[in-house]
Amino acid sequence: MKLHSNIIIAAATAVGLTALTGCNMYGKFKMPTDTPLTADYAEARNAEIDSAAFGNLRWQEVFTDPVLVDLIYQALDNNKDLANAKLNVDIAHAQLLGAKLSYLPSLAFTPNGAGAKYASNPFGWTYQLPLAASWEIDIFGKLLNTKRGAAAAYRQAEDYRQAVRSQIIAAVANCYYTIASLESQLTLNRRTAELWSESVQTMKDLKLAGRVNEAAVVQSTAQYYSILSSITDLEVSLHEMNNTMSLLMNVMPQTWIVSPDADLIAPEILREAIPMRELAARPDVRAAEEALAAAYYTTAGARSAFYPGLSITANGGFTNLLGSMIVNPGDWFIQLAGSLTAPLFSRGANISRLKAAKAQQQQALNNFEYALMNASAEVSSAMTVYEKSIEKTAYLDKQVENLSKSVEITEELLSLGGTSTTYLEVLTAQQSLLASQMSAIACRRTRAQSVVSLYQSLGGGR
After folding, report:
1. Pairing between strand 325-341 and 124-137?
2. CA 287 to CA 163: how far, in whole Å?
3. Distance spanning both ends of the chain, measured CA to CA
4. Residues in contact with 48: Cβ distance below 8 Å, sequence separation at least 6, in sequence order
5. Sign (positive/negative) of CA torsion 146, 151, 152, 156?
6. What angle (nearest 5°) sits at the alpha carbon of residue 162, between those of residues 457 and 281?
């Protein structure tokens, strides 16, 4: 009866202390709203998700090239970074399960026996078959905050996995369009090199005919070797990009086949401003938010260490040892105890732990705000690059069109004779056309990659 009363007193004391401090240790995490940035985010986080938004589209709806689709599937199946991210989710889930089970009592079965003989007394056996149970009562939220922190860490791992998935999809797409662009440039340069080889021979014939001098021959020959040099650079870049794609696929280096003239155009909805709710859908932003929540619960758990801990233990079983006497047959026994442990002096451990937790929580808040600002900057940059690449592509197409006409006109004038047009002017026009065509191909690659970057920066990759 006395033991029962002590347990009640301990519980009542704990409940009383909880009433005084519970708000600091039991409250759920809420996004701080003391800055305009976090206030806007908190409002956007609760807004309805726009399934038609570009970042919320499934990646199969954005990338429709069948060759690219197959490559993305292969990368998602084989990439080691994504595999490790999935394992991090499994680890976090196991830790969350452990935190949930900490509410349950612990049970232990510890049978033991002994035999002894003293002087002329007969040999005697004693035995015990006890079952021990211990249960920690979560009065001050220690276990609750541990569980909530583990849940936040689990969600953070899920968001990180999604961020890695998004990065892999974007990396494969960027690599794909780069390979396609390099192959187009390589084909153009090889075709141009063949034409320039013929031009060099033509210049030599014209020199023999007295129509051009040695300087013209040397200049055309130098331009021919310049094109050959560019071809070697393109071949190296293409080889390196194929190796990058192989690494993403987790296979040995090989050459990858891409669709000819691969391109990617973004939908018209991207001409509009991007609302905050789309930034809130980014997995890296959500992961930073969950890291902040986990830090909040760590701080709350550090506060709970300043308050008493209540535990109940029970033992029961079967034994033949009653005090100092051995009885046969044995009998059942049961014991019940409660304890309230209050920290009085811990050599500053609890205080230092709380200070460290508060500092880490502030770091997590800083990281979250940076992630949000970085997301906004990435979206803004990607949209600007996309819009300007569209303009530049149109300009370059016009330039190529006019330079093509220039080559035709100079060639025609040269063939007619009787004009001031020289073969060097034809070569110069061809050289300008090649440079413009190379720029147009590169600009289309930039445009396609800016769409990829914009999709990724909006949290795409589902």
Report:
1. unpaired
2. 9
3. 62
4. none
5. positive
6. 50
Beta bridge pairs of residue 312? 135, 338
Q: What is the pLDDT of residues 104-142, one digit of tens each?
A: 888 887 777 666 656 566 666 666 777 788 888 888 888
Check: CB of residue 92 under 8 Å from CB of residue 157. yes
User: Rounded CA gap, 66 and 60, in Å?
Assistant: 10
SS3 362: helix
Nearest one of 105, 151, 149 to 131, comparing CA atoms: 105
* pLDDT average, residue stretch 392-404: 95
pLDDT of residue 150: 94
> Can you give the pLDDT at residue 17?
46
**pLDDT (tens digit per residue) in 40-89:** 888 888 777 777 788 888 999 999 899 999 999 999 999 999 999 999 99
| Residue boundaries of the structural domains of the chain | 38-101+147-308+364-457
The pTM is what? 0.83
pLDDT score at 18? 47
The CATH H-level (homologous superfamily) assignment of domain 38-101+147-308+364-457 is: Outer membrane efflux proteins (OEP) (1.20.1600.10)
Q: Measure the CA–CA gap between 323 and 377, rounded to whole angstroms.
A: 76
- Return d(Cα 41, Cα 160) in angstroms, integer: 19
Judged by DSSP in three states, 388 sits in helix
Chain-centroid distance, C-alpha 238? 27
At position 65, the amino acid (one-letter code) is D
